[in-house]
Amino acid sequence: MKLKKFYLLMLPMILSLGLVACSDDDDGGVDPDLPPTGAIVVDEQVTVQDGTLTINSVNISEDGWVVIHRDNNGAPVVPGIISVPKQIDDGPTTNVTIELKDGEQVQNGETLWVMLHVDNGESGVYEFDTVNGVDAPVTDLQGDIVTVPFTVVVEGDDVLLTAADQDLVNGVVYVESITLEEDGYVVIHESNDAGDGPQVPEIISQPVYLEAGAYANVGVPLKEDGTVEAGDVLWVMLHEDTGEEGVYEFDGENGLDSPLTKDGDIVVTPITINDVTEAPMSGMLTVNDQPIVDNTITVESINVDMDGWVVVHATNEAGDGPQVPEIISEPVYLEAGDNTDVVVTFEEDANVAAGDTVWVMLHDDTGVEEVYEFDNMNGLDLPLFDDDGIIVTPITLE
Q: Residues of the signal sequence (predicted)?
């Protein structure tokens, strides 16, 4: 899985040249009227080994701290930290090594947050508690806290699966964390007749193919004919990929795509479905005929109920709709809510020209989070619907 790096709004050069101002007497000090600010660069996945992890780089306009917070529903837990506060000098610092506190354990696929704090209380003593007003988080020029999430990879844990009891919403089971040493699958089995294990070989979900790596919040859609009720126990299981690559073939007899084992035990975990609800994901799309500019088009406005995608499909051979599942653009990830002036880039081999009709379409995001997987067969990242059908708009390129 490719690693992405997050850059928080300001380049280190800006910090080093523009955010430190000289006082009136030109003594080189920091302008007391300029609030401290900074930036963080960190890989999407960070390996933890023997309770230690490394952040690519940080940059802060005055002396401060780097700390690690846990995650709570997409935001850092404050004021508590799980790391030993790392004191840093003003300016850029690369390869920042941070130790977890004694007794703090993290899991593969867990989300953590690295955050910058000032050191404006007792020098060299980390005192942030949200009440005393000292050692508060650093903010950027827009007033946002300088903090970045990342996914944990625990060194030595080659195969791990974590899933919790949950409500089943729109037929998708969410798996908290998965780590695979080799490519494989995550699937859902229903309980056997005795109620003490999974019913095999049958699965009631789409098999979600995963390349080797660590994953968090993987959405596994159930098959359309799967019947699940509140109180049912389902079994989340990892399988190998030993037959045709990317094709799930486990049938209990052919020896292909067998359940993964660790220390002789099948990697499987039961979860209880607390409730079954429907909250159909829908959206709205506004886009007009327009010229191609630098191999891109711009979608004026998009609103989606949940995170998803906007993509562009070519016209099918009949000329009456989109060609699916192929797309001719880079998929653009959308966060839930309003998205305006969304720039969509055509693939280099799209071969689009003035006069062509293309189809701008919205898709959901199931399977691996923020990875576009729609192939019209695996049940992942499907087109979104409203009362009139698939949310898609044809436009003519000028």
A: 1-21
pLDDT tens, position by position, 77-109 = 999 999 999 999 999 999 999 999 998 988 777
Provide the pLDDT confidence category of residue 34 given band limits of 50, 70 and 90.
Answer: low
Give yes or no: residues 218 and 311 share one domain.
no
Q: What is the pLDDT of residue 4?
A: 32
Q: Report, as an integer, the average pLDDT of 201-219.
A: 92
Asked if omega into 331 is within 30° of 0 (cis), the reply is no
Q: What is the mean pLDDT of the chain?
A: 87
Q: Could you tell me if 128 and 27 lie in one domain?
A: yes
Query: Are 45 and 87 members of one domain?
Result: yes
Give the total number of structural domains in the chain: 3
Are 209 and 245 in the same domain?
yes
Domain containing 263 equals 160-277
CATH number at residue 205: 2.60.40
Is 14 in the same domain as 132? yes
Average pLDDT over residues 65-78: 93
pLDDT at 155: 74
Residue ending a domain, choose from 102, 129, 154: 154
What does the pLDDT average to over 173-190? 93
SS3 string of the chain? Answer: CCCCEEECCCCHHHHHHHCCCCCCCCCCCCCCCCCCCEEEEEECEEEEECCEEEEEEEEECCCEEEEEEEECCCCECCCCCCECCEEECCEEEEEEEEEECCCCCCCCCCEEEEEEEECCCCCCCCCCCCCCCCCCECECCCCCECEEEEEEEECCCCCEEECCCEEEECCEEEEEEEEECCCEEEEEEEECCCCCCECCCCCCECCEEECCEEEEEEEEEECCCCCCCCCCEEEEEEEECCCCCCCCCCCCCCCCCCECEECCEECEEEEEEEEEECCCCCEEEECCCECCECCEEEEEEEEECCCEEEEEEEECCCCCCECCCCCCECCEEECCEEEEEEEEEECCCCCCCCCCEEEEEEEECCECCCCCCCCCCCCCCCECEECCEECEEEEEEC
Same-domain status, 133 and 167: no
